[in-house]
User: Fold these one by one.
Assistant:
Number 1:
Amino acid sequence: MDEILDVSLEMRDYIVSAGAESLSTCMQCGLCTNLCPWRLVHGEVSESFNIRKMQRQAQLGLDGFDEEEVLFACVTCGMCQVNCPREVKIIDNVRAMRSTTAEAGFIPKILKPVVSSVRSNGNPWMGAQDKRAEWQEGLDIPAFTEDSEYLLYVCCNSCYDPRGKKIAKSVVTLLQKAGVNFGVLTAEEKCCGESIRKLGDEELFQKLAASNISLFNGKGVKKIITTSPHCLETFKKEYPEFGGEFEVIHYSELLSNLMKEGKLSFNAELAKRVTFHDPCYLGRHNQVFDSPRELLQAVPGIELVEMERNKMQSLCCAGGGARVWAEVAVGERFSELRITDAVDKKADILVTACPYCVTMLVDACAGMEKGDVLKVMEMSELLSAAL
Ligand code: SF4
Ligand code: SF4
C-alpha cells in the first residue's frame, strides 16, 4: 500500500514566510544535489544530505527535513544555486528551514556556545567586547572620523583568533603602504551576523545589523573595507534591507585597484609555486576572481598555478553556513580534498583570502601531515611579506 504522507501546509507557509519565497519554483530536477560538494565525500552526513529532497520536504511541510545533521550540513557555498535552472534561492530556503528550529533554540549542540557568545559578547569567538581591539597593539591606526575615506571593518575571527590577528595586521600594513585614508571603530563594532543569519537566528542577526548600522550611520561611514568575504556579503547585500547603504569592498579588490594606479608595488622576490583557493563568498557569491590573482602575479618570482576546480567551480573549504564550528568526521572534510588539489599541482603555498578558509585549510593541512610540502597563507600575509 502507498505510504500516506503527513503534509503540513502550515509548516510550508511558515517556511515560505521565513524567507523561502522561491521554494515553490523548484521543479525537483536534482541538479543541485549532483553539484553539491557533499557528493564528493563519503560518510554518514553525505549519505543523508540531499538538497533536492530537503526542498521537496519543505514544499510539502513534511516532518523529517529538520533532522539536525541534514538541516545544518549545508555550507552555503552557492554551487547549487548559481547552476539552478529555475534560479531558486536555495541558500535562503535552507536558512528559512533552519529558522523553524533555530529561533526556538533547537540548534546543534556545538553551535549553542557560538550563539550564546554572540548574544553576550557581540562575537562568536567567546571574546570579551573590551578585547575586540587588542589586535591593534603595536600598530598606529587612527580612529574613524568624518575625514576618513574608508572604515576598515575587521572580521571577529581576526579580532580574537591568534592567526586571524596576523591577517588583520597584514591588511593594515598593506593599506598604509598604499596610502589609503582609513580609520577603525573596532572597539564599538559587533559581529556582522553572517553566520548567525545562515544558521537561522534571524532575530539575533537583525539586532546585530541594527547595532552596526546605527554605529556606522552615526559616525558618517560611507565606504567600508572588509577583511573577510563573509562581512563583504553581509554589508553589501543584506544590510541595505535594514537601512545600511554603504559602498563595500574586500581588501583584495581595493589593493588591486591601487596597484594599477601605481600606489602599491611588491619588491621582495618570492620564488615559489603558488595556487589560489577562491573563497566562496569572494568568488562565486561576489564574482571577485581577478583581483587576488593580479596581486599574486605582481610579486616577483611567484609562479601562479591553477587548481582544476577554480573560480566559479571552486571547491568550498566547508567553513561557511556556520560550519566553521562543526565537528566533521574524517573522510567528509572538503578542506582535505582542497589540500590534495593543491598538492597535486605541486604548489609550495596555498593562498586564500578569507579567515574561515585559512582556519579550515590550516587544520586540514596539519591533519593530513602535509605541512612539509605545502604552506597555507592568507593573501595579505604573503603580500605584506613581499613589500
Ligand atoms: S537545481 Fe533548482 S530546480 Fe533543480 S532541484 Fe535543485 S533547486 Fe530545484
Ligand atoms: S549551498 Fe553548497 S553545500 Fe549547500 S546545498 Fe548548495 S551546493 Fe550543497
Note: The two ends are 72 Å apart (CA to CA).
Number 2:
Amino acid sequence: MQPPKSKIVAPQTVARKTPVITDWSDIASWYDQLVGEGGSEYHQRVVLPGVLRLLKVEQGQRVLDAACGQGVLARLLAMRDVRVTAFDSSKALIDSARVHNDGLEPSKIRHAEYMVLDATKPFGQFLPQNTFDSAACVLAIQNIHPIQPLCEGVAGALKPGGRFVIAMMHPCFRGPKETFWGWDATDKVQYRRVDRYLLPRKAPIVAHPGMKESHYTWSFHKPIESYVKCLRNAGLLIDAIEEWPSHKTSQPGARQAAENQSRKEIPMFMAIRAIKVGDVNYQPEPEEPQPD
Ligand SMILES: C[S@@+](CC[C@H](N)C(=O)[O-])C[C@H]1O[C@@H](n2cnc3c(N)ncnc32)[C@H](O)[C@@H]1O
C-alpha cells in the first residue's frame, strides 16, 4: 500500500504547469547499490542481454547511452572495447558512474565518457553529430517527459542507418498503478488486470514503500503509438519490437504452474529498435501532453 501523500518526500515542489524534475539524484545512492557493478537481477538476466543483441555492437563502434544512471550498460560496452558516451540528468548518478568506471581494467577506462545532460532539452548540441553507430535508453524512457527532444537528440547524434534501442517496462501490461496481477479461483488462472492504457498519465513511484518517509520518482505512461510517433517525427523508423518475460519462477505450491504460465505469457518488458533513415520527410505530429 502506498503511504499517505503527506509522508512522501517529494524530490521537488511540484507546481501545476511547471515541468516535473525527473532525475534520480534523491535516490542515487540507493539506486547505485541496487544496480551494483554488473546490474540488478533484471538487468543481468533479461534486459542487458536483449539490449546488447538488438544494438548489434562491434568492437570499436561508438554508442550513446541516454539516461545511463550509474553506467551499468556503458561499463559493459566499454569492457567489450566499444566507445561509449553516456549521459544522465542526475549529477549524483554520473559521479557514481565515473567511480565505477575508474574500477575497470586500465585499457577499458578510456572507452567510456560520462556527461550530465537533460534528455528533455536540446542536448544534441553537446554531442558530435552523425557519429554514433547506435544508441540505447535502458529502463529510463518512462522516467522522462517529454520524449520528443530525446528522440531528436539521439537521431542527430546517430549516423544514417544507426540504431536506437529502447528497453522499457511493457506499456500494455505494466502501466504504473493501473495494472495488477489477479487470481481467478474458479478457473485457477493468474491474470493481469489492465485498468488504463490509452491515455497518457504520470504516477509517483515510491522508492521504499515500507518506509515511513520515502522519496519518489515519476513514471510517465504512454501508449505504444506515442513512442512510434515521437521516433518517426525524429526520422527514426522501427525495425524491431521484442517483448521479454520475467525470468523468475514461483515457489512450489498450488498456484505455481498457473503463475509460471502467466509470467511466460504476459511480458514484463518491451524493447523497440528504430533506425535513422535519411531522406524520409514526415509531417511531424505533436507529442501528446501529459496531464498535470
Ligand atoms: C530507472 S533509471 C535507469 C538508469 C540506467 N539506464 C539503468 O538501466 O540503470 C532512470 C534514469 O533516468 C534518468 N533521467 C530521468 N529524467 C531524465 C532526463 N530528463 N534526462 C536524462 N536522464 C533522466 C534518471 O536520473 C535515472 O538515472
Note: The CA atoms of residues 13 and 87 lie 25 Å apart.
